Sequence to fold (347 residues):
Amino acid sequence: MKRLFPWAVLLVFASVPLWLNDPYLLNAFITTGVFIVAAMSLNLLLGYTGQLSLGHVAFFGIGAYTSALVSLGFDVELLFGIRVVHEPWPVWSGFIIGTLVAGLFGYLVGKLSFRVRDAYFVIVSISFAEVTRLVALNWVELTQGPLALTSIPPLTLGLPGIGYFDFYSKQSNYYLVLGVLVISYVIISRLVKSRIGRAMVALKENESLAVSVGIDVTRYLVLAAVISAGMAGAAGSLYAHYLKIIDPDVFLFLYTITMVIMVVTGGKGTLAGPIVGGLIFGFIPVIARSFAAPEVQWILYGAFMILILFVLPQGIVPAIEKWFGVSNEADEARQNTPSSAKTQDAS
Fold:
């Protein structure tokens, strides 16, 4: 039954465009799905390694801008009069390059900042996000600054012998986002259940003990940062090609807070936590908008978040698993990571 449940949930969500004819609600599903992917990427850092990144939106925005610029092309002058001209490339190449560039920045930030911990790492991550926002705002020749990049083409899939399919409609974008979400879920699931995931959980639970048995702290934290940043970049790319317009507001701190809320309320360190938290806090504004003024909507949003954290301090998914006696992925990894196993992983 436990193994069939995810498939049943996937089948329900796959059927949504078949019976939901409201474009507004379908748009809400798509944007919520994008932020669930971003929240899942943040959960890999926060939930499985214990590292809080309050600048995670930077990777989301880097993926969005990179993918858009690769697809649109650009002509920009660099230092010493050197000019770089890039002709538009196929849209899927933009998606792939945006993901890779975000992962590369994740590597650079992780390599530099994981020498520090706790509040210092949080400050570094926030500073990086603010720097990227200022670059997007002021490098007008490349990013158009506050005028925004417009006319971003939709993602296109080329099928040999059949032709090209554009993800232009809301229905097609819904299935695209759902597909990326499922792939992200599988990647994180495989990762956290592997010896790499056990090492990450060991670092979160007791870093000193993990180091004493030979686990390379920087190596595993940087790996988590790269995968997390790449996944956030993929979400940003989906966001840009769906909206077809992107501006520096994509780097707003509010988006990082939204991801953190989805992870913490759903249950950090669980695969389903960001999904459950994302659906709840992605649709609260949609539901509240039908009967409440904008000010009241935010009050309800905050009150509901406080209520969940007060009643279920570990999050919704861990509470449900506790009620039904089901262990989550972090517990399984912790149980499968005795000191001897950690030593073997390190070797």
